[in-house]
């Protein structure tokens, strides 16, 4: 019987996940389809009951349901529990298990520019303290990276992520100004804010005046593919990466949990860049 997978969110019509996963199901000859399910806030519980009743094999969860969905699942994997958000559900013979592949997807993508052994000794700066920052911070900490600071406009939100973290870290919450002044000490800088996203493409989350030319600058935004921070950082000599890798790898890790196959991420990247044009 054909297996059914999908993504639950609102808005959902522009999700690239259906094309990305359906291409993989075809490529690996897996008899399955992946659908976009539009689920409004307030209907998550019913949607999860639907997954059980319809015996849907697995799904991704996206905005705005990643936190609420946890209440309705049978088991939450430890890192997802510490993040406090789930983006992937596996239906294991009727038991719904929640995972978060956003943070580890980001780390896999970061490994294309820095090895884990170097990352473990690197000073890392995360800019922003929303849901994406939380997933990345906790996952980096769980992977053994200890020197991860967070800069945010609202510093209390950065402090909260650090104090919630159950893994050992030497982290400081910074104001944006303090981060700017101390930028030179960071080997890796990650923008998780929406600053620079289309249509406001001329905005920078932070001044790059003190950026080290030896640094790596990663932006989780992929629209546009090259944000101002990436363009300016490259001009200063830094290595840069956009958010396509995180998106593709969170999907690849979900696909692996559902099928046991870690898919070809280059192929996924081609699918996604074709959609983005
Ligand atoms: P996500 O879940 O995608 O990470 P989010 O939870 O809305 O998104 O978080 C957005 C992040 O971008 C926050 O860190 C936010 O800063 P605040 O916590 O101070 O709100 C940051 N952000 C968004 N717009 C910003 C702006 N114009 N200036 C500074 N920070 C901004």
Q: Can you put this structure into words, describing what you see?
A:
Residues 118-194 form the Quinate/shikimate 5-dehydrogenase/glutamyl-tRNA reductase domain. By secondary structure, this protein is α/β, with parallel strands linked by helices. 38% of the residues lie in helices and 18% in strands. The chain has 11 helices and 12 strands. It has helices at residues 17-27, 44-54, 78-83, 102-110, 116-119, 131-142, 155-164, 176-181, 228-235, 244-259, 265-276, and strands at 3-9, 32-38, 58-61, 75-76, 88-92, 95-99, 124-127, 148-151, 173-174, 188-191, 216-219, 239-241. Helix 7 links the parallel strand 8 (148-151) and strand 9. The two termini are 35 Å apart. Bound molecules: 2'-monophosphoadenosine-5'-diphosphate. 2'-monophosphoadenosine-5'-diphosphate binds next to helix 6.
Which percent range fits the helix content? 25-40%
Number of helices: 11
User: How many beta-strand elements?
Assistant: 12
Q: Which architecture name of the largest domain does CATH use?
A: 3-Layer(aba) Sandwich
Helix and strand sequence = EHEHEEHEEHHEHEHEHEEHEHH
SS class: alpha/beta
- Report the sheet with the most strands, covering strand number, pairing sense and barrel closure: 6 strands, mixed
Low-confidence stretches: none
* Bound ligands, named by name, code or SMILES: 2'-monophosphoadenosine-5'-diphosphate
Mean pLDDT, nearest integer? 98
- Gyration radius, to the nearest Å? 19 Å
Q: What is the total domain count?
A: 2
Domain SDH C-terminal: 243-272
EC number: 1.1.1.25
InterPro entries: Aminoacid_DH-like_N_sf, NAD(P)-bd_dom_sf, SDH_C, Shikimate_DH, Shikimate_DH-bd_N, Shikimate_DH_fam, Shikm_DH/Glu-tRNA_Rdtase
Keywords: Amino-acid biosynthesis, Aromatic amino acid biosynthesis, NADP, Oxidoreductase
